[in-house]
């Protein structure tokens, strides 16, 4: 496929919250010339982000779907294909966060993390992949997490395990898809100022004051959703075509 990312179609999951990373990625992709499917559990939120992009001159549609539900994702991808065209770029961003003492963690809490964060990425990838294979060009970007690399905190073992799974999935897919013109990479956020992080701050869930955590980072501030969008824009670009199976930390230099 010659067109590369400009003029192509992207699907961003979990992009229906205007303050989240998914929406920032979608806005950035639209600015870069892509048409964007904004998928979210919150269909109204997804449509609102899409309407904002359209009002700014971009092309976007909102898609209501639960990423852990195969039929819903299949229907959303089919609608995206019909309305904007086949998918060239997929960003697996949808996730739920979980905090719980490991000793008290239930099977249900564990399963919920795996269903949304890991199985959701598996389902969306499987549903979008045929379009990329048909085009001989594609970009898959998995939003993992610093805790999936380092272990983070024990109260997030289930979340971190799901994110570690995404990192392994990124590498396995990259091994198989490189010969088909499809790259697979992961962007691993650190502490980013979004509704998810704000909820944890407000509920005071960290083992120490959150400002003390930030003070230990080489760049001692919260990251921005736009920082993640910039990394995704790079991996989605034509210029990143020789880069696959990589993990890019966008974390202010944090290593713990
Ligand atoms: P966020 O503001 O909570 O956004 C996550 C989005 O995913 C929300 O719009 C949410 O919709 C949606 N979502 C949740 N469950 C879904 C499902 N089953 N199907 C479809 N959509 C679903 O979080 P964020 O901070 O932007 O996080 C974006 C990504 O970065 C996530 O993968 C997260 O794990 C990762 N991350 C974040 C941080 C951080 O510091 N913020 C750090 C490391 C990694 P609803 O609002 O309707 O539930």
How would you describe this structure to a colleague?
- The chain is α/β, with parallel strands linked by helices and 256 residues long.
- It has one domain: Rossmann fold.
- It binds NADP nicotinamide-adenine-dinucleotide phosphate.
Which properties best describe this structure?
alpha/beta; Rossmann fold; binds NADP nicotinamide-adenine-dinucleotide phosphate; 256 residues
Helix content: 40-55%
| Overall pLDDT confidence | 96
Structural class: alpha/beta
Number of strands: 7
CATH level-4 homologous superfamily = NAD(P)-binding Rossmann-like Domain
Per CATH, the class reads Alpha Beta
Summary?
This protein has 256 residues and is an alpha/beta fold. Helix content is 46%, strand content 15%.
Question: Topology of this protein?
Answer:
Elements (H helix, E strand, L loop, with lengths): L8 E5 L7 H11 L3 E6 L2 H13 L3 E6 L5 H14 L5 E4 L14 H29 L2 E6 L2 H5 L6 H21 L4 E8 L5 H8 L7 H6 L9 H12 L10 E4 L6
Parallel strand pairs: 1-2, 1-4, 2-3, 4-5, 5-6, 6-7
Bound molecules: NADP nicotinamide-adenine-dinucleotide phosphate (NAP).
